[in-house]
Each structure stands twice: as structure tokens, then as C-alpha cells.
Amino acid sequence: MTHIPSRLPRRNFLISTGAALASAGLSHAAFFPSTASADENGPVRMTVSVDQSSSGAEIAPEIYGQFIEHAGNVVYDGIWVGEGNSIPNIRGIRKDVVDALKPLEVPLLRWPGGCFADQYNWRDGIGPRDKRPKRHVAFYDELETNEFGTHEYLDFAELIGAKPYISVNMGSSSALTQVQWLQYINDKDNSTLALERQKNGRATPWNVNYVGLGNEIWGCGGNMRPETAADETRRYGFYLDSEVVRYSPQKLYKIASGPSWNFPGYKEFTEAMMKESVNIFGQTPFQALSLHFYMWQKSSRSKSDEELLPAVGFDESEWTGLLKTVLTVNDAIVTVSSIMDKYDPQKKIALAFDEWDASMNGPQVTLLKAEISALILNMFHRHTDRLRVASTTFMINIGNALIQTKGPLMVLTPSYYVFAMYKPFKGAKPYAVKIGGNQSIHESLPVLDASAAKAKDGRIYLSLVNLDPNREVEVDTDLSGTPEGQVLTGPALDAFNEFGQSPKVSPTKFQNFTVSGGKIALRMPSKSIVVFSVPG
What we know:
about 525 residues; alpha/beta; TIM Barrel; 10-stranded mixed β-sheet; 8-stranded parallel β-barrel; disordered N terminus
């Protein structure tokens, strides 16, 4: 995560307009909108064909990962309420949040940061909670109590069934300190650190495998030049996986701190990390390279470039501008992947898109946010040969939150429902999709986006996103069989689910199918997401 100027809400990022708005269309020609005109009030008609003759690399479940950090009320109130609290909890962790996340089958949970990780001392977060130090951490206004530390995080990950992904502190801590943190977590024998862990309440090791080598080490994680970042990554990677010798495999899945698409120098940084990190044994000391991207659109009602569009009440120029920026996620993946290809043509090193969000001014998670989540997940499905890890910012309360809490109340956001509807895509084999007759909103924004895959249950799933806020879309597909599906829509693009009220945006069974000539057609509502399946 990047430092947020004080006059912007947390997780809203001031980024370079040139870098963020460099391109507006998908790189796949099949998804470019045509310039054909259409009745402004009538439905848009188009075709969707799924190429089942071959499939891409499996959609790694880990691209559906999540991210939590000690920022705002992400952790405190969002996850941790403490033992003895009147809010029902499991060892201090909110029971309602655990119960809501379990069905999502969250594959990966990143912690403690983000920039918080770059000054984090793991020893502050172990032992009796009433004796843990309270500290101020750079980039954050809140006083950190350290009530939620290593044991609490790993307990939470176990409760929701997620694999832990711990980002170690490369910015302000030594390699030895981080080695000892992992030994505390993973040691199996009666080492001093294992005995200390046992004394603190955990008898067995957690066997954490995913480890982040720093966070944004070009910025808040150390302000390193590319060559220095590569050297430090090589050094930390060696010590954290100290059993690595020329002929032995690396035990940890290490994710190196990569570039941010928001800032200049991302090409040079990627080049250095891929070229200069290789150790004396010819090994790259990481299994994945991270990429961060925060999308934004400035408010049309402000003269300041630092004021973001509002989370609710945005105008047409604001939401269309934001969606055009969202589509440049594809360009970010393609550009960084092409640099990685120069040094890793066999694509052994994964791309880890482990921070992404569309930043807005306000906490509300709206139907527009849900559409953005669906668009980005669809784009991830098109790059499975390289993209194998991702996590959205954040899982709770802030940013692209799946869940929001307020005292004893909890609400599931529209983004939660996207991740629920997309569950079958985890581990599925993606198919290429072609959209015929795709039209445009404001010249360059496509009306429809789509992704298809054959899931582990043997069924073929098709996700469709209608970005038009006013018009229905009639889609003729080349799929056959009896369809089953859900639709997510709402009364307005800025509709959101409020505490203590029936949800305005939640999935319902989709039934608006017809069959003609043995092929399935459907009529999608405006501003909607449809996911349906047919027998494979």
C-alpha cells in the first residue's frame, strides 16, 4: 500500500494521471467495442461464442485472495473485537465475519501489509496482550495496540480456511529478525523459538508457506533504487530459505516486491528485479513478483486533482472515466508480463497482483464496485499462464471490502456477492470468448465483458458484465443445455447495502433464458452481472 495524503480518505491514492489513464481499451481484439449505433432506450443485441476447442492454463484459486492490514477499522472492529466482548466472537475474532467468509473459501490471506509491514516488529504482537507495546507506526494515524498479532492472524486464517501469506519487513528490519519470525511460526522441534510459541499457546507449527519479500520496497518499504531492491531481495530470499543450495528445492513460496502501475519507473524496476536478483547458483530467489495498481478518477466537481470521485452520487463522466482506467489493468498485466518473459520465457515465475482496488471518496461499496471486481476477475482469467496470485484491498470495511461492520452489525457488500458468484472459476480451465456486435458507451467503454471456463464440476461457466446503466443486453450464445445461473444488479450504480436494512444489491436466480435452435439466449438487465452454467 502507498502512503495516503492526509486530506484523502484511507486507501484513496493520488497517482500519476499519465500512468493511470495511458490506455482505455482491452488488449484482446475480441473485446473492443464497435462504433455501431444503437437505440438509446432499446436493448443492445450481441453474440457471445465460447471456443471449447482448447483451454488456457488453470485459473489458480489464489487469484481470489484477500488482503488485510492495520488501517482504519480493517482489523480492529472488522475482525478483532477481543475476548469477552459482547459481540459474539471466537477467541476475540468476530464470529459473524468468520461465518460469512467460510462459504467464500478464501484461498489466500495477506498480512500485515502493506506499508504497515514495513515498520512492523513481530515480537510486538506475541505474548500476553495486556503486556504488548502500543506504538505509532509511520503512514498511520492510529495508535497500534498490537492485540492482533501473529497468533491472532493465523488463528483467523485457520478459522476461515485461508492459506496465510505473510509479508516480512525488509524496509526497516534485519534478515535475521525475519528468519526468526518464520522459525517461531514454523519450527517443528524443540528449538527456543518453537518452545516460546508453545508457551504462548500454539503447540504445533503453522507451516506457513507464502512469504512476501517486503512490500513496495521502491516506496514505503525502503525507498530503494531498482538495483538495491534486487540485491536486498536476493539477500533476504537466501536467508529466509537458508536450506537453498545448488541442487535443493526452495521450500517457501516467496513473492518479491514488484512495481506499481501507478508510478513511473515500473519498467526499470521490473527489469532489475528479474535480471539482477539471480543468485550465484543461477536461481531467482522468488517464485512470484508482485504488481500493485490503484485505479482512480478525480471528482468532476473539484478543481483539485487530489479529490476522488464520490463513492455515491457520482456523475456519468466520473464513473465512465473510472471504468476506462479499470480496463488498463489488462495493459498493466501485459506490459509487466512481457518484461518477465525476457528473463523467464517458460513462465516459471508467477505474477502476483496482490494489491488492487478502485479508490473512491467514501466507504460505501456499491454496485459499480461489484462491476469493477467482475471486470478485473475476468481480466485475470485471460492471463492465467503468468498471473497466479492476487489479493484485493481490503477484505473488511475499507476499499473493495467484502464485508463491512459497525459495532454489532455486519453487512455483505456487492463485491462479496461477486466473489461468491465467481467461486466455480477457481481451478477451472478458461476458454477464449468472442463478443460479436459489442457496442460502446462514451466511444471507448464496451457495453459487455465476458469470461468462460470449464469448472472442476464438469460444467461450463459463463460470466457476463453489462456496463450500460440504462439498457438491457440481449445475448445469443453458442452454448446448449439447461442453464442455471444468478444475476446481481440493483436500483442504481451507486446502490449499496446498508446496516440493518434488506440488501439493495444481492444475487437472485436468473431465469430470463430462451432456447432457439438448441442454443441459449438471455436478456440481461442494465448494470448487471450474470454468471450461469451449462453441462460440459
